[in-house]
Amino acid sequence: MDIMNSTALPEHQPYCGEGFDTFRNVYREVHGYLSLWVCLFGSVANLLNIVVLTRREMTSPTNAILTGLAVADLLVMLEYIPFVWLMYLSPSSRSDRYTYGWSFFVLFHSNFTQVCHTISIWLTVTLAVWRYIAVAYPQRNREWCGMQRTIVAIFLGYVICPILCIPLYLAFNIQSKSPPLDDNTWTQNQTLYIVHFSELGSANHNLLVDLNFWVYSVVIKIIPCIALTVLSLRLICALMDAKRRREALTSGSKKTPRNLENERQTDRTTKMLLAVLLLFLITEFPQGILGMMTIILGRGFFKDCYGKLGDVMDILALINSAINFMIYCAMSRQFRNTFSLLFRPRWLPVPQVENGVNHNRTTTMVTQV
């Protein structure tokens, strides 16, 4: 908010009422503690995801993407912990927030989290495309979505996303200014440092700053959300068509326990990935809409509405990054089996064989349809 408050804005009718101020002030009191617990849980959960998904018996293209996603989410969690501690929980004085070191950390935080979150979005879209191909074109799945192409897609995500965020790096920098003369908090010769629009960002009527909002809102948020919505709907239709084809091919013949288990696993895997995509849409789409409204309505909307919802958008993004572990455990038997083999205490009984299928035997998360 220092960025917007330190820049003169024309008078306008407030876009959001005093209720937004009240909500922001009330939620801000609990945001630090809530986000710290989410980050601690998410860090452990994503570490467990990486450990389980990288086991040899779990090797598959989909699990490779999920591993890359867990790494990006883990980086977000680990970086946000010191930020939330210093910003919300540390008993530091007001003057500490305007040192060069603090401003550098805030600038690094905004750039680093945006890059990691963009990588997470890239991999989520890739995951939807890979799963759609596996269900709609099973005969082409090994050719189009093999492990080599999957590794290339993950690598490109970690390379292209930092490049995509270049407007963010250039639009803001650290600037020094003198304290207000009417504020007795500061000493007379003290220098304050803030994150502000850079000269390049402010040039040509804030062209680069506006470009940054376009990239953030449209390219990083809205387009992936639309793509995920279309892919999810097509995935559901493809899943229903594949089930009808299987029933037509096996009508009149008795299915073996292994075939039944494979069909159930395919359905569970698709439902699990749909849950991951739905959670992404719930947390990301509102942010894209708010960013688009900032572009249309101007910086007044950012100051009145968008900025006051910053903490809420942060906690939604953190929850999205932390909760995947629970989805995997709830909806993937292979994930639970592998997790159990790795971390089950020796004194617990071993799961029994059901319906002719040994559930101690772990397989890849994606079963061919």
Compact description:
With 369 residues, the chain is mostly helical. The chain is 72% helix and 3% strand. The chain has a single domain, classed as Rhopdopsin 7-helix transmembrane proteins, CATH 1.20.1070.10.
Q: CATH H-level name... which superfamily?
A: Rhodopsin 7-helix transmembrane proteins
Beta-strand percentage range:
under 5%
User: Separation of termini?
Assistant: 51 Å
- Rg is 24 Å
Class from helix and strand fractions: mainly alpha
Q: Give the biggest sheet.
A: 2 strands, antiparallel
Number of helices: 13
Q: Could you say what the CATH architecture is?
A: Up-down Bundle
The helix content is: over 70%
Give structural attributes.
disordered C terminus; mainly alpha; disordered N terminus; two-stranded antiparallel sheet; Rhopdopsin 7-helix transmembrane proteins; 369 residues
What do these coordinates show?
Its main location: membrane. The N and C termini lie far apart (51 Å). A two-stranded antiparallel sheet has the order 1-2. With 369 residues, the chain is mainly alpha-helical. It is elongated and about 85 Å long. The model is unreliable at 1-11 and 353-369 (pLDDT under 50). The protein has helices at residues 2-5, 18-53, 61-89, 100-136, 141-144, 147-164, 166-171, 199-249, 257-297, 299-306, 310-322, 324-331, 333-343; strands spanning 172-177, 192-197.
